[in-house]
């Protein structure tokens, strides 16, 4: 069984984390571990019709962001990797600087130190130099910065189509098969 950690932080775009959990729930042999920050709960309330308990029901395991003794805070807990969707600039900055004062950041730090796949879906625009420097630092440590920038060759018709394409790209990074969008086949 493959284990995937899903972090949802307090940036706009909680639909990315919601959809990621929905998709992973449908894939056999995937065990999900969710960290939902307080900021994510606030953003989710404003952006979606989901309540935190409903979202948590999609995960196999839910971890409190304050529990730094959680299983996922140790490198001995084997995972395929971690996706933070969306990733706030605060969380991105904390990850870039190994400022492990909550479980989302600690789990990401563990993923990096163990050389596993860390995929961050940052939700901010425009970006200033500090944001970019933190993204460079994470990339230099082996993390993957995957902004939710849609492609249009698959002719998305709905927001759902656009969200699925980003989630599909994140799953590609972990080597998880899906059929969330039509891949470019050339001309």
Automatic annotation (TrEMBL):
It comes from the Bacteria. The gene is ubiX. It catalyses: dimethylallyl phosphate + FMNH2 = prenylated FMNH2 + phosphate. This is Flavin prenyltransferase UbiX. Dimethylallyl phosphate binds at residues 153, 169. PANTHER family: FLAVIN PRENYLTRANSFERASE, FLAVIN PRENYLTRANSFERASE PAD1, MITOCHONDRIAL. FMN binds at residues 10-12, 37, 88-91, 123. GO terms for molecular function: carboxy-lyase activity; flavin prenyltransferase activity. Belongs to the UbiX/PAD1 family.
